[in-house]
Amino acid sequence: MSSKQSNKTSRTEKSEPTTAGGLIALILPNATVFISSGCIMVIELVAGRLIARHLGSSIYTWTSVIGVVLAGIAVGNYIGGLIADRYPSRRTLALLFILSSGMAGLISVFDNIVATADILFSLPWSLHVAMHVALVFFLPAAMLGTISPVVAKMALDLGYRTGRTIGTVYAWGVVGSICGTFLTGFWLVAWFGTKATIWGVAGVLAVMGMYYAGLAARKTWMFVGVLGLTAVLANAPWGWAKSAGEALALRTPVGKNVIHSKETQYSYLEIVYVDRARDTRAFHLDKLVHSQIDMADHGNLFYGYERICSALTKRLVGDDPSPRTLTIGGGGYVFPRYLDDGWPAGHADVVEIDPAVTEAAMIAFGLPRDTRINSFHEDGRVFVDRLYREKRRGGSVTPYDLIFLDVFDDVTVPHQLATLGFAKMVRDLLASDGAYIVNSVDVYDQGYFLGSLVKTLREVFRYVYVFVEGASLEGKRSHQDTFVIVGTERPFNADRLGRDSHPPTRIITLTDENIAQLVNRPGTMVLTDDYAPVENLLAGVVRQHANRRAEIRRATKYFIAARALDKHGEWARAVDAYKKGLAHQPGSAGAHYSLATALYQLKRYDEALRHYDSVLRLNPANADAHYMTGNVHFIAKRYAQAEQAYTRYVNLKPDDAKARKLLEQVKQARRQAEGGG
Question: How many CB atoms lie within 10 A of CB 165?
Fold first, then answer.
């Protein structure tokens, strides 16, 4: 192009608006792209929270969310550019905003449908997560992505300088994204929750569509009316709205066993009944079970790692009546309460990042509001770092006898709590004979995270021990389990440790050879603040987690059918359904118990006994299984075994007068059978 042509082109462009109408005309594209870009970021942030309800929160979920949304925006930008060249901007923007509003409103529907799609559970876990996110969020992101190019074309049509106009539109889009990010992260989710926030986005986009279509556009008003009714069905508290919303997949059905639920700034939590008759409850955070409690016996520890920690506490504390303990990760406060109840003269601190978790434990998990436990609601790393710095400055910091780290699960691992730097600060807060106790989920034969964690703690502590519940390590090698690691400056005797657990159990102490296999395995490393790739180290566990979830879903269908048959006394059909479910989920103690009870009703006592034994292998403190085992032996006139089973039941339920009387009857029958009169 010649200089004359260039000068001519430049003269056809307006330098800047000179009238009020011109200013408004230029501001409108900037305001439009500000709103659309802000809405995209709101949806992106909310996407991670919605997905966590079904798939947990990990690097896989956030990687998928960011990648899918960016891909949607890219595709939308390209299509929007093609649209901008062919159709008038204002009418086109009206349609794009209306369609974007509809897509945003359908996010909850897509999410609820995809979450129940069995086909995804056959995929590798990372691909499962990516496909779930793509099916739910790609189209809304792409639709919103079409708006910016059309807005840019509308701004260029005003005739102002091209470079400044495009730069200003892009800049306001970025500012809108920033505002949407902070608004969502700090306020919207906390005030309204994720689903209400999404419907708010749909409403804002609908208003923009109405503006560009003109207030007289009847079709737009019809759409807004339908959107409003749909929002009512998705969010209103009335019974009819809930029923209709669930039927249309606008809501996630609230299970009949849900006692308390709340969306917090950190997770979606639920407390549900596991067994209404026994009043046992489970504490879920983003669909992962973090605690389970027997409301009639708070000291009944359900999880193997908790039983190991109870034994370690007794062994390490010894005769000290007032130990100082710190637990990082409150969850349902089951183990902190065990510490508080067992050592009432002691001092128990808990660091739980989410105050709503503590409140939920008080509302529905039995934690008294006047508890002696001291709760600190902040990140565990921040709490430890603050005490460490205070001690280094010469402040008065009383050392802890035991520090428990209970934040690692099979999907989510806060890497900042697994590093060498953190372990060194923990050691500095311990008494000279104190101990650091960490639970870790891993597969022994892979063991990259477990091995790395042990290797890291061996850089800090003179003695490092590893424990797992069970009779033999051989049965643990290829399956996911929870290991307990202890770091201390003094050796201690771990012989027959299971006798000290509550309730008593079998505990395996890994040998020096076992630990050497873990830490010397290629791929293990000392975890540092600069490099702690915990997700990669746990890839094998994540795969097993995904496979287990798929099996649980299949098993649940059979268990639901079996329970329905139970209610109608169709024991034989219920037995078949329970067996099919247990083929997919053999570790379900509840299903084994229900199957055994159905077999008991059919007088198939030997089969029933095998499944009651399975219950007790999974949970030795299941009082009802001991009772039913006693019944089976009593019927078979195996009085010694019946007496043993009833005795265990009475030890667990000492207030059951009927069982005590039955125990005396068995003892008398045994004496008569043995010729003792």
Answer: 22
pLDDT, residue 260, reads: 92
The Cα 224–Cα 202 span in angstroms is 10
Q: How many domains does the chain have?
A: 3
Q: Which helix (H) or strand (E) holds 480?
A: strand 480-488
| Pair 471, 389 in one domain | yes
Q: What is the pLDDT of residue 8?
A: 45
- N residues, the chain: 677
Tens of pLDDT, residues 212-230:
988 667 788 888 888 888 8
3-state secondary structure 290-331: EEEEECCCCCCCCCHHHHHHHHHHHHHHCCCCCCEEEEECCC
Give the pLDDT confidence score for residue 136 in this predicted structure: 94
Domain of residue 79: give its range: 13-247
* Closest by CA position to 307, among listed 470, 531, 75: 470
pLDDT tens profile 519-574: 999 989 999 999 998 878 887 776 666 666 677 778 888 888 888 898 889 999 99
Domain boundary among the residues 228, 247, 266 is at 247
- Per the CB < 8 A criterion, the answer to whether 231 and 250 are in contact is no
Using N-to-C axis directions, what is the helix angle for 107-115 and 194-213, rounded to 10°?
140
Residue pLDDT, tens place only, 51-65? 887 777 777 788 899
Q: What is the pLDDT of residues 510-519, one digit of tens each?
A: 999 999 999 9
Q: Of 229, 247, 265, which residue constitutes the final position of a domain?
A: 247
The residue behind tokens 């970025």 is 174
CA pair distance 71, 502, nearest whole angstrom: 52
**Cα–Cα distance for residue pair 270/263, rounded to 1 Å:** 9
- Classify residue 269: in a domain, yes or no: no
- Listed residue (47, 29, 223) closest to 135, CA to CA: 47
Assess whether 594 and 448 both reside in one domain. no
Q: How far is it, in rounded angstroms, from Cα 44 to Cα 38?
A: 10
Are 374 and 348 within 8 A, CB to CB? yes
Please indicate, yes or no, whether residues 19 and 127 belong to a single structural domain of this protein.
Answer: yes
Rounded to whole angstroms, the Cα distance separating 618 from 624 reads: 13
Residue 214 sits in the same domain as residue 338: no
**What's this model's pTM, rounded to 2 decimal places?**
0.76
Distance (Å, whole) CA 430 – CA 433 = 8
